[in-house]
């Protein structure tokens, strides 16, 4: 599997967890010492990350990431770092609202699967 395909696999795992609206499933993808940065908040540690993710899954409608470009910047036997650009699409009542989006992730492969060490996803400041 190519590095880009592996990065997209990590995003697909995250997307599936978001789609499930199961905060436990989503939280389980993050390392206990993870940093999660969104457009409006910096979250570090299990309680802060879980609270942010609970807000994400509690939103009306759904969201998905359409990433046009993915660039792997770090790859070892068990760590993958990548950046991506594309759009995030919010869908509510069958209506899509897309916004430009950028993403940076560091993930570690564990016996239980990929765990995110850091996730930074945000909208450009001029949006």
TrEMBL record:
<protein>
    <submittedName>
        <fullName>DUF3225 domain-containing protein</fullName>
    </submittedName>
</protein>
<feature type="domain" description="SnoaL-like">
    <location>
        <begin position="9"/>
        <end position="124"/>
    </location>
</feature>
<dbReference type="Pfam" id="PF13474">
    <property type="entry name" value="SnoaL_3"/>
</dbReference>
<dbReference type="InterPro" id="IPR037401">
    <property type="entry name" value="SnoaL-like"/>
</dbReference>
<dbReference type="InterPro" id="IPR032710">
    <property type="entry name" value="NTF2-like_dom_sf"/>
</dbReference>
């Amino acid at each position: 599997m190519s590095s880009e395909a592996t990065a997209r696999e990590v995003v697909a795992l995250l997307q599936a967890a978001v789609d499930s609206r199961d905060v436990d499933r989503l939280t389980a993808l993050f390392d206990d010492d993870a940093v999660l940065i969104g457009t409006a908040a910096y979250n570090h540690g299990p309680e802060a990350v879980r609270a942010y993710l609970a807000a994400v899954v509690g939103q009306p409608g759904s969201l998905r990431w359409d990433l046009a470009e993915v660039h792997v910047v770090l790859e070892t036997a068990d760590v993958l770092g990548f950046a991506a650009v594309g759009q995030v699409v919010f869908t509510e009542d069958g209506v899509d609202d897309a916004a430009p989006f950028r993403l940076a992730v560091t993930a570690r492969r564990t016996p239980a699967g990929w765990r995110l060490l850091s996730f930074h996803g945000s909208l450009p400041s001029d949006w």
